[in-house]
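Figure-free illustration: sequence to structure, shown twice.
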Amino acid sequence: GSRQTTVEYGGLSSSNGNIIWSGNARPVPGIWLETSHYLPVPFTRNKLQFTARFGNGILTDDRWVEDAQLHHKSLFFKWAINPTNELIFGAEDYAVWGGTSRSLGPLPKDFNDFLRVVGGLSGDGNSPEGDEINSLGNHVGAYRLEWRKKWEHLNLNLYWSHPFEDRSGRELNNIEDGLWGIFLDFKKPESFVHQVLFEFTYTKDQSGKGQIDGFDDFFNNTIYRSGFTFFGRTLGSPFFTPAEKDENGITPGVQNNSSIAWHTGAKGKLAQNLYYKTLHSLSFN
């Protein structure tokens, strides 16, 4: 079925702490298998734990490629440095694949093609030219790193979410691109300031935009022209703004994917039974 992402950081983040999967769009229907919590890695004395997710959904909106599917997999580890310090790190991948293109006709979508998508392999002789050279489907991935520190009256989270769509991004050639955040929880829901968050998002590097090995062109794809969107909303950070729908109601991709943005949020209690949450963003596109 369709299930929205669990809200993190008190709902104050611009994109739920994840630059590629934010909760900005409605949830994608599909079948998802995941661990319900962090599980211990054998022989680590419970110091190292992991969580994983694997599944496949279908993009049911009006798109350039009808009935396109969305594969997802992720693996994250949690290292308990000591009782008050944790380090979380890992990676995730989404891939739009299959379906029927309005210009190219049916695209590869059998089980062998699904395995190629899962493995990040290139297409075979029946695939479009771009997918024979690159990975089959439109892959959007991210590395994520987070440090959690606990004190008696304060919890601190420092996090980083780094996007990639090809080898240059996976090899961190676009190291400047990403989402950086600080979240402070003062553990006092009844206080005037309960939680505070600050974020900075940068997406102007794109592996040296305009160069032969660069031009990541985040969330856009020449085959899957509707890009990384669903029902006209960007699946990732809302600072990636989609283009207006055409006369057929189809979103032609992401219009703005190169920006610098600052975001802050806060929440607390004003008076008896009166609580507030405020969000402010400033972006240069």
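We now fold a second protein in the same way, so the two outputs can be compared directly.
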Amino acid sequence: TLPGPDSAGEDGGPVINHPDWLVQRWREQYGLERTRKICRANNSEPLMTLRVNTRLTSCDELMDRFRHEGYEIRQGRYAPDALVLGRFSGAVFSLPGFDEGLFHVQDEAAQLAAGLLGPFESGRRALDACAGLGGKTCHLAQVMPDRAMLTAVEPDDRRFRLLEDNLRRLGLKDRVETFHGGLIAFAESGTGLFDAILVDAPCSGTGVIRRHPDIRWNRQLTDLQAYQQKQRKLLDAAASLLAADGVLAYATCSIEPEENQQVIELFLSDHSGFVLTDCRDFLPGAAANLVDRQGYFCPSPDNGLDGFFAARLEYISS
């Protein structure tokens, strides 16, 4: 059995310190040893990861600047524009280049998700259906061709304000059209169809416990079905906005099957014409081992990343 909440790990590492219901389901899903690794990763303070704004600088230039100012920093392992900062406990706005918009704080797992909307081509219309604070919106705006069009949808007042702030800071505001409202309201506004849609759905967040430790104690097993219902509604709304031969990417920062694989399986059973594609084909080679046999992108904290899930679907016109 796994150690209890007050016992140390066998290797002298951090205590397990997770609720029994979560530990037991992870043990069934991952096995004993991997569950221990996930719990220990969650109990360790994560390093800060930056996504370089390559429209304004390069990874090498920003890394040199950080090192010149005395920071320990290295290239990321998986995402090409990622830099990982050594131990840092100050405010992010105090870092060199923040006010200039040279980077955005974003884990490598989330950085890789943007590539799943590819291939990026001039003239295509893309939609970030659940933009939040704008991490993935800004990344898409950064990598899409100049003549591509990107729209970001966010209903929450605070998040929408921060989304706009981040777009301005990174010099990307003119590249994105924003909609302050929910996806269903947006779908009813007569906006037309999109060639690529990202649904980064609200979820339980069990993949980011190492960054938000309270999540482990604030979630219950019954929450997963409630999240699933919301996620399925968002996917249904997104599907109604997708053009023929379009791409629909679904993502969460959960590692629970109810919010991930089950959502996709139910969606595919309800929507003919959609096919699951292999995420491996749209990610850097270094990230190939983060994709499972079904083609789902599913890193977990024991990989040194946030726990994450993404599926890439294509809508094949008849």
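Summary for the second example: The first strand starts at residue 49 and ends at 52.
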